[in-house]
Design goal:
The chain has 373 residues and is an alpha+beta fold. Among the domains are: 39 residues, no CATH class; 122 residues, Band 7 domain (Tetrahydropterin Synthase, Chain A, 2-Layer Sandwich); 81 residues, no CATH class. 50% of the residues lie in helices and 18% in strands. The chain has ten helices and eleven strands. The strands form four sheets. Strands 6, 9, 10 and 11 form a four-stranded antiparallel beta sheet that branches. Strands 3-2-5 form a three-stranded antiparallel beta sheet. Helix 2 packs antiparallel against helix 3, helix 6 crosses helix 8 and helix 9 crosses helix 10.
């Protein structure tokens, strides 16, 4: 075993581990080299050495060595690159696509490889008809000077002011970098073109009341157009912020809306009254009709009963006239007598009426009975 192997660990020199340590080591070596060359050599007994003729090629060599060292350091520095989280690196080797690297520290060949960093996690935003001046919880917007973006013509030849936002992100870094020269401008042009066409095919009132439906249609068509261009982006959100008539016609538009609201209110009130009165009238009419039907059935049944009773009595009368007549007389008297207050009893032989004690008087005392001829 050699002596070097027998040395303790704390006696060994630590080797550089990172590229930065290697660069620091090279710089230290160069500093030591130039410091040694600049130190004058001493003669015997400390006397200065005699003057020696200079060598011009030695100075040129030192300069070339220094330049070479700088180039080496620059090449080493350019060979390593760092990709931040949320980014990817697209590496071209001699102008041809080589690889796509993720976040972290990576190596590339200097002067041969070209690196492009692309943010694939960040949300990019384009605003139309306004601009955000101080985004945050209390955002402020500037809408002046953007009428050329926001003013549109609807299908019923009305002018409308539309402000909207398009949010997108990169999903294919390679096509995003090299298929379309200016992706941002392409997104703006396509969004404005599709929005104007969609709004131009709809009526004014439909645009005001269906902004979410219109935004969905615009988003779908935008994604189709960008995919055809191979822009390498995906649309996240299309949102209509503000849809209003232009400022000069807002008062008239508000008056029309108020009149429309009044008309709807009156129609609702009329429908409410109709729903209250008409069903009640129909119920009363049906009740009257049912009562009439019931009365008719009762009268018919009663008439049929009376007819049947009369025919039965007639049959009995034909069989026994005297008996039937007397029975009918007695039944009639039985019905009438309880309601008679005074009773007169006449005898053929006696010309004056006889007194009759009224036992049905409520006081329990007999009432005087009138007498008459």
């Amino acid at each position: 075993m050699s002596n070097q192997d027998q040395q303790p660990p704390w006696g060994q020199k630590k080797k550089p581990q990172t590229p930065e340590e290697w660069v620091a080591l090279v710089i230290k070596k160069l500093q030591d080299y130039f410091a040694d060359t600049q130190k004058p050599s001493k003669g015997d007994a400390g006397t200065p050495p005699p003057n020696q003729p200079g060598n011009p090629m030695a100075g040129v060599g030192k300069i070339l060595t220094f330049i070479f060292a700088i180039l080496v350091l620059q090449g080493i520095y350019a060979s390593f690159y760092k990709i931040s989280p949320g980014e990817v690196g697209v590496v071209l080797r001699l102008g041809q696509y080589s690889q796509t690297t993720q976040s972290g520290l990576h190596f590339k060949f200097p002067l041969i490889d070209t690196l492009y960093k692309v943010d694939v996690e960040g949300i990019r935003k384009e605003e139309f008809g306004f601009r955000s001046r101080s985004p945050g919880q209390q955002s402020t917007f500037d809408r002046s000077g953007f009428d050329t973006e926001s003013l549109m013509l609807t299908a019923d030849t009305n002018v409308i002011n539309v402000a909207w936002i398009v949010q997108y992100r990169v999903h294919d870094p390679l096509t995003f970098l090299f298929k379309v020269k200016d992706v941002r401008q392409a997104v703006r042009d396509i969004s404005e073109s599709i929005t104007r066409r969609v709004v131009g095919n709809m009526d004014f009132d439909y645009v005001l009341g269906n902004r979410d439906l219109l935004a969905t249609g615009v988003k779908k068509e935008m994604q189709m157009q960008l995919d055809k261009l191979e822009a390498g982006v995906s649309i996240g959100t299309v949102q209509f912020q503000d849809i209003n008539p232009p400022e000069p016609v807002k008062p008239a538009f508000n008056e029309v809306n108020e009149a429309d609201q009044d008309m709807k209110r009156l129609v609702n009130e009329a429908e409410e009254t109709y729903n209250k009165v008409i069903p009640k009238a129909r119920g009363d009419a049906k009740k009257t009709i049912e009562e009439a039907h019931g009365y008719a059935v009762a009268r018919v049944n009663e008439a049929q009963g009376e007819t049947g009773r009369f025919l039965a009595i007639l049959k009995e009368y034909k069989n026994a006239p005297e008996v039937t007549r007397r029975r009918m007389y007695l039944e009639t008297m039985q019905t009438i007598m309880p309601e008679v207050a005074s009773v007169y009893v006449l005898d053929e032989d006696q010309k004056s009426p006889l007194p009759l004690l009224n036992l049905s008087a409520p006081q329990g005392l007999p009432k005087p009975i009138q007498q008459g001829n």
